[in-house]
Design goal:
Elements lengths: L4 H19 L6 H6 L5 H9 L23 E8 L12 E10 L4 E7 L4 E4 L8 E4 L3 H7 L5 H14 L5 E6 L3 H7 L3 E5 L3 E7 L5 E6 L2 E5 L1 H9 L6 H20 L7 H8 L3 E3 L3 H12 L6 E5 L5 E5 L5 E5 L1 H12 L13 E5 L6 H11 L5 E5 L10 E4 L4 H11 L6 E3 L18 E5 L9
Parallel strand pairs: 1-6, 3-12, 15-16, 15-19, 17-18
Antiparallel strand pairs: 1-2, 2-3, 4-5, 6-11, 7-10, 8-9, 13-14, 17-19
Helix pairs in contact: 1-9, 1-10, 4-5, 6-7, 7-8
């Protein structure tokens, strides 16, 4: 494996994050708190079993560009549970979650979309629309030969109904999930009450009775799948709680094992469970962004409660009718970008790249604009392009602006300087208009958005 292992670790990280998120489909914050904080799922596992400090995986990812964009990134997570004789492209999506990452403000969120939600599916071309459950959009994509297939139509359906742009998708096939549990040697969980389901679906489209005693018990992969999928004794909320129990049990079991020697095997066996339109370098770049998200900045919501009404379809099927005002409120809570703080002074700022790092001045200017600064220019500093430390020069007496810039860019107090008298009110780089504050970027600068 050699030098390929760090990149494969990044891919495994994606697999584990998505699998965990999908198995906690009911608006639980646990997956994000556990997987996205400071390190990664794998890093926490290694830290738990290793006697020596573990280098954060973000620093072990292959060299490549950081995430350059300043726009919010929205990813549709699709969990399919196809039967053995059913092509994955014709499967319904058992779980649908719209995840979002704001690379500038370092926030993230998820909206769980119930599979029985009644939506308009734009099967196209033109204005052709089908009214059906949202979980059928993936299947219709293949049936109607929609460009890009099921994932593309699922993305378009979310955009059409909720007005949120979907940039990427990640689709997980749960055919191998039982194998993943078995690879951990099974799981031990404490079932709070007996569970009986007389209508649990079988792979040959029939039903069977399953039963789990209350209390502590060990489950293999097949039993864990049954336990997590069963929903006929109670409701989807009961199933969500059982999924969380399985997740917690998997976490506990993983912490007991030394997974490092088994990572290549797990990647080979379960990497093909995930399909995505994210490019490999985009996966690595987003992994870096996700690693820096504070758990307190994560919002997880579900379209439930007052956001839906129970209705019965023409064929007697159970459906959920969205309540538009409540659904819009949920999406605003998760997807609205916080309003930038008011800039204390109307200052003209010049950002100059004093390093050989390409694009650093442009990315810094974009980040500052997102924080509320409007009058910004950027370019390259004159002289040797090897400045080690970032310096802020106050050219016209703008102390509040300088203070805010230091806070936003996380620079020490000694980074701010008053300009020499000869430079006060000096013109900008290349004869541009006069500037109030000049920032010369050094190698020490790490943008909060990267």
């Amino acid at each position: 494996m050699g030098g390929r292992l760090p990149f494969r670790l990044a891919l495994l990280r994606l697999v584990l994050i998505i699998l965990t998120a999908l198995w906690t489909a009911g608006a639980t914050v646990f997956a994000l708190l556990f997987l996205w904080r400071g390190g990664t799922y794998v890093q926490l596992l290694l830290a738990a079993v290793s006697p020596v400090p573990v280098t954060p995986i973000a620093s072990r990812l292959p060299d490549g560009p950081s995430w350059d964009g300043t726009d919010r990134v929205n990813i549709l997570l699709l969990g399919v549970d196809s039967r053995p004789d059913e092509p994955v492209d014709l499967a319904r999506t058992d779980t649908i979650i719209l995840a979002t990452i704001d690379p500038v403000h370092k926030t993230a969120g998820m909206v769980n979309i119930p599979r029985d939600l009644l939506v308009s599916i734009p099967v196209g071309p033109g204005s052709a629309v089908v009214q059906d459950r949202v979980n059928t959009a993936h299947r219709y994509g293949t049936y109607y030969k929609y460009p890009g297939g099921g994932p593309a139509l699922a993305k378009r359906t979310i955009e059409y109904n909720f007005g949120v742009k979907v940039d990427y998708y990640v689709r997980v096939d749960f055919k191998g999930f039982t194998g993943l549990v078995d690879a951990l040697g099974g799981v031990v969980l404490d079932n709070p009450y007996p569970l009986r389901d007389d209508e649990y679906p079988t792979e040959n489209y029939g039903t069977q009775r399953i039963f789990f005693f209350g209390g502590l018990q060990q489950l293999n992969g097949a039993a864990a799948l049954q336990f997590a999928r069963s929903r006929h004794q109670d409701t989807d909320f009961g199933r969500i709680h059982r999924q969380q129990l399985v997740l917690l049990a998997m976490r506990q079991r993983a912490l007991e094992l030394n997974l490092l020697p088994r990572l290549p095997q797990l990647i080979i066996e379960y990497g093909n469970l995930v399909s995505t339109d994210l490019k490999p370098l985009e996966i690595v770049a987003l992994a870096r962004v996700a690693a820096g998200i504070d758990p307190a900045s994560v919002r997880v919501r579900a379209i439930e409660g007052p956001a839906v009404r129970d209705v019965t379809g023409e064929d007697g099927a159970y459906l959920l009718m969205p309540v538009k005002s409540e659904v819009n409120r949920i999406f605003r809570e998760v997807f609205e970008t916080p309003a930038p703080q008011e800039v204390p002074e109307d200052s003209r700022i010049e950002v100059l790249n004093g390093t050989p790092i390409p694009g650093l001045a442009r990315r810094t200017a974009d980040y500052l604009r997102a924080q509320g600064f409007k009058n910004i220019s950027f370019g390259n500093a004159t002289g040797p392009a090897d400045q080690q430390t970032t310096v802020i020069y106050d050219l016209t007496g703008k102390p509040e602006t300088v203070k805010r810039l230091r806070q936003i860019l996380r620079l020490p107090a000694d980074s701010a300087h008053s300009a020499p008298a000869a430079e006060a009110g000096a013109a900008g780089q290349n004869g541009g208009p006069p500037v109030d504050v000049r920032i010369i970027l050094g190698r020490d600068l790490v943008l909060p958005s990267e």
